[in-house]
Specification:
TIM Barrel; Arc Repressor Mutant, subunit A; globular; 16 helices; three-stranded antiparallel sheet
Length: about 400
């Protein structure tokens, strides 16, 4: 059997749109069309089955939006439908994003019965004022309540999502958030800086944010707290206990293949030596009206592949092997050498025994490293100064989840 593949499922509705969010999420209608949307998702999957011939599904990720707005019966129908159409590994990782304010009592038990065995909980902060400033619908007390529900359902593998450099936040408050999260015993913590993304309410009406120097101090002190508690950083914004790294996100960052279904979902699959990207209609209405058939495929030109690979691989603390670049893209490692040499000469990349990884300084300016591999970059472009602000890399999940996905 060929290399495993992942499946990303986008469930696009939220109670309301957060002012910092630039994902494809939409305020939920009075009644979410759960059954119709699940049927569209499965029709969407069927249309992409030719991209997964002979491949076993290793991970499934239900992202959004707020997937926990869907009831257990809908999630069960979705996961059962995936299993009916694809070969699924016995030890498949099935992650579901959830908002502490949208999970009713007993729902996690229903999700677990449907096959969900990992949950990413969008806690963001444990400070009531910070949550209000972020437009979140939950309060601090709902986070431990949701964790208790998870444990009662037998789901010990869960992530807590945290943000730092929030409006008016101090270093002490950022560390307090991390310590509160650690106290709940998660297997994984995502910790990332609030960014003002184009098209968001915060971008058009920016709140007062901490300085870059203060944000850097928050990051370093929070990293130290996580390390003391036994969480190893394996990606720029991801920390895990031993053996609890998110396998789905690791597949992205290692430039693995995945199908993307749902409104606005992206997919990436290598077929007959070509890298194919899929993109589905962002509009939930159009997606539903088409029965999940609104989307397109595109062959990624060879000149774009180095940047796409590096956009992911440079996020990992383990870095990447040059041989993996050749295997994933079909290109020669020689295409990377000019940029790698420039970056190494400036102390931004470590190179050893065929592996490359960002240095500590390189991690701080990760956006600059990634930009070195853009197609329009000319030789010698690295001779300029670094951006004076640290890189602000948001978490995981689709093309920005392909620059982030998930959590």
């Amino acid at each position: 059997m060929s290399a495993p593949i992942a499946v990303y499922v986008h469930l696009p509705w939220c109670v309301r749109k957060c002012p910092y969010c630039d994902f494809n999420s939409h305020a939920a209608p009075g009644t979410i069309p759960e059954n119709a949307y699940v049927q569209s998702l499965l029709a969407d999957l069927e249309a992409d089955l030719d991209l997964a011939t002979g491949r076993e599904v290793a991970t499934v990720f239900l992202g959004g939006g707020t997937p926990s707005l869907f009831g257990p019966d809908a999630i069960d129908a979705l996961i059962s439908g995936i299993r009916a159409r694809l070969a699924v590994a016995p030890a498949v990782e099935v992650t579901m994003e959830a908002n502490p304010g949208t999970v009713e009592h007993g729902h996690f038990a229903g999700y677990a019965a449907a096959g969900v065995n990992r949950v990413s909980l969008g806690s963001q902060s444990f400070d009531a004022r910070a949550l209000a400033a972020l437009g979140r619908i939950h309060g601090p007390d709902e986070i431990p309540a949701a964790v208790s529900e998870l444990r009662a359902a037998g789901i010990a593998n869960f992530n807590l999502d945290l943000m730092y450099a929030l409006p008016g936040q101090t270093v002490g408050a950022a560390v307090a958030d991390v310590e509160a999260a650690i106290a709940l015993g998660p297997a994984h913590v995502s910790h990332y800086q609030l960014t003002l993304e184009p098209g968001t309410a915060f971008f058009h009406h920016p709140p007062p944010l901490p300085s870059d120097d203060l944000a850097w101090e928050m990051q370093t002190q929070c990293q130290q707290a996580l390390a003391r508690a036994g969480f190893a950083q394996y990606e720029v914004s991801a920390y895990a206990r031993p053996g609890r790294q998110c396998r789905h996100n690791l597949n992205y960052w290692r430039f693995g293949d995945y199908l993307g279904i749902g409104a606005g979902a992206h997919g990436k699959v290598k077929v007959d030596g070509a890298v194919i990207r899929t993109e589905k209609s962002r509009s939930p209405r159009i997606y539903l009206e088409s029965g999940g058939r609104a989307g397109e495929r595109r062959r990624v030109p060879a000149e774009e592949l180095p940047f796409e690979f590096m956009l992911n691989a440079l996020r990992l603390s383990e870095g990447f092997a040059l041989a993996d670049f050749e295997l994933a893209t079909g290109l020669s490692e020689a295409q990377l050498q000019p940029a790698l040499e420039r970056l190494a000469s400036r102390g931004l990349i470590d190179r050893e025994r065929g592996r490359c990884r960002p240095t500590d300084l390189g991690y701080r300016f990760l956006n600059d490293l990634q930009a070195e591999f853009l197609p329009e970059r000319g030789a010698g472009s690295a001779s300029g100064e670094l951006c004076t602000a640290p890189s602000r890399v948001a978490p995981d999940t689709d093309f920005r989840r392909f620059v982030r996905e998930v959590r």
